[in-house]
Sequence to fold (285 residues):
Amino acid sequence: MLILALSACITELPELDDPCAAPPSPGLYRLTMEDDGRSVLVDLPDTAGPRPMVVMLHGFRSSATKMKDVTRYGVIGADEGFVSVFPNGTGVALGVNRSWNAGDCCPPSSEKGYDDVAYLDKVITTLEDRVCADPTRTYVSGFSNGGMMALRMACESTELDGVVAASSPLVVDACNGPAIPTMLFHGLQDDIILFDGAPASGSVPAYRSSDETLDVFLEKNGCDRTPALIEVGSATCEEYTCDVPVRRCTLPEWGHIWPGGVHTQRAGFNLTRESWSFFDGQPLE
Fold:
């Protein structure tokens, strides 16, 4: 209930005549989507448009507010000049426990067949108009079920220019559409979404391993199969030579937690920062 109360205190994003010439003031806003009333948190930097935009998708039974607080994309966005966006999936209780229809996961969204690709495309195009975001620099990042949704967007959306997915397999059968820069992350001690994948068990469908998910995007993006290995903090990152960039980073002692933001010191790696560097076209160091 506290999360709902705090969300209600956030100012609704104003609809301005010319947000490129006179953008909304910097700070945190709420955008309420007309279709179903789902809310989207929008953190605006103090920069002129058109400006890049990063959409961060929460995991199963999480929320936009939680991912904003954990990842701290808004903090980096304020420094780097990009708009940080935190949509909400479909809720199952008190508007907090939410999910995305990423394909075979996760209920209730997947069971009810919600078209979250179309929904997120609409969020993106709405915000491109409302906050003067650059349609050629629009990116999606996600964790767990949100990362699965980000990968589905990479396969089916035409609104994206890059995607980062953490602790997330691809859970749709086909991956069509144009190739876009794709970065994967997985903790090798993740006991929720296993690095090696898992067969179907009871009501839980089978899902791809990290290697199998990586193979889809190596093929899609025209990559060779021999990466350069680069140490970034405590992580090992594989940098592939591709027509369109693909990167995968792993942490040997990390579980099912976003490896950055509030967890940066413990992880020895900041995926929030590294994802922006990837989107911005910066090489690994």
